[in-house]
Amino acid sequence: MPDISHQEWRERAARLVPATAHRIGGTACDAGGDGFDAVSPRDGAVLARVPSAGKDEVDLAVAAARRAFDEGPWPRLKPAERKAVLLRWADLVERDRADLALLIALEMGKPVAEADGIELRAVVNGLRWYAEIADKGLDEAPRTADGSLALVTREPAGVVAAVVPWNFPLTMATWKLAPALAAGCTAVLKPAEESPLSALRFAALADEAGLPPGVLNVVNGPGEVTGRALGEHPGVDVLAFTGSTEVGRHFLRYAADSNLKRVWLELGGKSPNIILPDAPDLDAAADTAAWGIFFNAGEMCTAPSRLLVHRDVADRVVERIVARASALRVGDPLDPETEMGPLVSSRHRDRVLSYAEAGRADGARLLAGGASLDRPGFFVQPTVFDQVTPSMRIAREEIFGPVLSVLTFADADEAVRLANDTDYGLAAAVWTSDLSKAHRISRALRAGTVWVNCYEEGDYSVPFGGVKLSGHGRDKSLHALDKYTDLKTTWIEL
Fold first, then answer.
1. Which of 14, 66, 195, 359 could cysteine-pair with 364, CB 3.0–4.6 Å?
2. Catalytic residue, candidates 119, 194, 266, 398
3. HEC states along 163-212?
4. Spatial separation of the C-alpha atoms in residues 429 and 410, rounded to whole Å
5. pLDDT of residue 1
């Protein structure tokens, strides 16, 4: 984290003049509809007016990506040359981390210390990880009968549309773009309406790094217009999306109604965090539970929003979580000391508060928070409910905010039943000192990731994604390349 004071961050914000135009074919393009305001959740101020891409602008972006794929050098470069460009891109992101962290903090409310130390660290690591993979892939030559030769080659799939959310705007973009570009694909990125500015700066750095024109294009606009145009576009070969289950369904319909493009979905979650009485450190488990639900203001698909705690230790664990919630420093995301910033928009703040009201109405007991803060911006207090039952809305629906629902259980079998009693299956955790129990419970949980005695741990070597309504396909790891490549068989009679 740069040694920059709160006042210095505010002064940088006051001087900020962000780029707003779409990036199509390596140049700025401000065409489109009436546009929309990029609003900062820290105070409700308008950061910039951003042009909105309609069908015409999406056509231009896809055409640029198609030309770059069909005629341009990128898919035909030696893999080591693609690697060199991606490494330069990572170096430029590292160089401009402070500027990118400021944009992220301003447009979606993430504390600037976390934008720099967590999000941008993940971006730089991701670009470098897939850059190093670019020239490490191996094709296959299966053994066949004498007189024949079979070759199986992995080839880039074509034009990729990446539609990403606002909660980790550049991390999610990197998860899609880095493996796609490393494989030789070209791309069109559509950021969320709430976080367009950091994406445009990110793409400008890619151009500066030497990415050929048209390899990476950025179009901004509402999902129902710009996102839909990408989903229905016959020139898009692969669409990768992170966001809500509702919108994921739309993209599957768009693909069915157009060219049957492959659609990869990483969707919502209602992740269970199971604390057994034999957890190796109950205080550490409680502290991690509190950190997990309040980190990024709870705006995470993997947030451990359902705490399942054994009844024998529930009082101790919940008491510590409530204390942590009450002590959390909520404030200006430009203050390096802030631990939790605002929610991304006034609409989302009101939605989260409606769940707090639903929890009270359904009979859950409010132990902390449950209200907004009396200050400018879109802030919600860290909120904890106990005496929650599985049928309550706060136990079943993804809130995407700093709201924890506490449920208790009598034994491990009941914990697994409660954990799996959800339409989602993105992530889960279990805290126990019993190795055998840890293995049995992990296998029984229906989730793409299970953490044992930790939460949100991992690196680029392991895949990430869900089951059930949390989607399909995997980001991160070598497995991400499967989404952006095709296997071609060539059979030769000798």
1. 359
2. 266
3. ECCCCCHHHHHHHHHHHHHHHCCEEEEECCCCCHHHHHHHHHHHHHHCCC
4. 17
5. 62
Q: Are residues 260 and 286 part of one domain?
A: no
Total domains present in the chain: 2
Domain-located, residue 1: no
Region of residue 31 (left: phi > 0; alpha: psi -120 to 50; beta: else):
beta
Same domain, 245 and 391: no
Q: What residue numbers bound the domain in which 433 lies?
A: 272-459
- For the stretch 270-296, pLDDT in tens is 999 999 999 999 999 999 999 999 999
Q: Is the pLDDT of residue 2 over 90?
A: no
Catalytic residue among 193, 299, 301, 339: 301
Would you put residue 400 in left (φ > 0), alpha (ψ -120 to 50) or beta?
left
Contacts of 278 (CB under 8 A, 6+ apart): 432, 433, 434, 437
- Digit-coded pLDDT (tens) for 353-400: 999 999 999 999 999 999 999 999 999 999 999 999 999 999 999 999
The verdict on whether 185 is a catalytic residue reads no
State the pLDDT at residue 31. Answer: 84
Q: Do 156 and 69 fall into the same domain?
A: yes
Residue-wise over 7-35: b if at least 16 C-beta within 10 A, else e? Answer: eebeebbeeeebbbbbbbbbeebeebeeb
Which of 271, 182, 226 minimizes the C-alpha distance to 483?
182
User: For residue 484, is it within any domain?
Assistant: yes
d(CA 240, CA 370): 35
Span 107-136, average pLDDT: 97
Does some domain include residue 309?
yes
Say which residue the tokens 């919108």 belong to: 247
State pTM to two decimals: 0.97
* Structural domain includes residue 465: no
The 3-class secondary structure across 281-320, one letter per residue, is CHHHHHHHHHHHHHHHHHCCCCCCCEEEEECCCHHHHHHH
User: In the annotation, is 266 catalytic?
Assistant: yes
What count of residues does the chain have? 494
